[in-house]
Design goal:
It is built from six helices and nine strands; from the N terminus they run ββαβαβααβββββαα. By secondary structure, it is an alpha+beta fold. The protein has a domain of about 150 residues. It has a four-stranded antiparallel beta sheet. Strands 4-7-6 form a three-stranded antiparallel beta sheet. About 30% of the residues are buried.
């Protein structure tokens, strides 16, 4: 039985197992010592998701529309370390995942998860961004990060949604997340000639996908 307080699962997620806490176990989650560990992805399913166009959360076939669940830094560099999902599965995760919907939640790190991170592509920014971005696109493709590890390029979005604390995020909340995360990207860019200007250009392009400003109440 699902945990009390969770929203109703979308139809595509109803075949997922439930863990001992009552949370549906996403398709990508690896089992460690016979139990699902939400911090660790199954590497075999990573390959299957990309090669067979399968949803990262429910494991079912996707169509042409794909949604990436990510933080705003991924929106700036248009890069994700995780494959996309169905929109309804992505929304469920943004609203119900105890890490994604709680800006104060901390990653549970230990030696095992730190070793696992070393197998992922790109450079991880170890923080809770405080907001969740649902980047909806029709195009994406995998590429090598330069060290033999896979990353995914997120194509031009036709829509972007933002969530925080199980609700739509405000423009101010998203900007706050961008401001707190951008210095980490900038520090990396400064190590490569010309990369900083490219990053600034990418941020300017990204800003059109921020939530609209709310009108002041009267």
């Amino acid at each position: 039985m699902d945990r009390h307080g969770l929203s109703e699962r979308p139809a595509k997620m109803r075949g997922l197992k439930v863990d001992e806490r009552g949370y549906p176990v996403p398709w990508f989650v690896a089992e460690i010592d016979g139990k699902p560990d939400f911090r660790v992805m199954n590497p075999v399913r990573f390959v299957k998701a990309i090669s067979q166009n399968l949803c990262w959360i429910c494991g079912n076939l996707m169509g042409t529309q794909k949604t990436f669940v990510a933080g705003p830094m991924c929106g700036i560099n248009r890069t994700s370390a995780e494959p996309p999902c169905h929109l309804e599965c992505a929304r469920y995760a943004a609203i119900n995942c105890p890490f994604l919907n709680n800006p104060n939640a901390l990653r549970r790190e230990d030696d095992f998860t730190r070793n696992t991170l070393e197998t992922l592509g790109g450079i991880s920014i170890p923080r809770n961004p405080g907001v969740v971005m649902l980047w909806q696109t029709r195009t994406c493709f995998p590429f090598d990060d330069g060290n033999g590890k896979p990353l995914i390029c997120m194509g031009e979005p036709f829509n972007v949604e933002w969530y925080r604390e199980s609700r739509l995020a405000t423009r101010e909340e998203v900007i706050e997340s961008v401001e707190s995360g951008f210095p980490a990207l900038a520090a990396i860019a400064r190590t490569e000639p010309g990369a900083m200007q490219d990053l600034l250009d990418a941020r300017k392009q990204f800003e059109k996908y921020l939530p609209a400003a709310t009108s002041p109440s009267h």
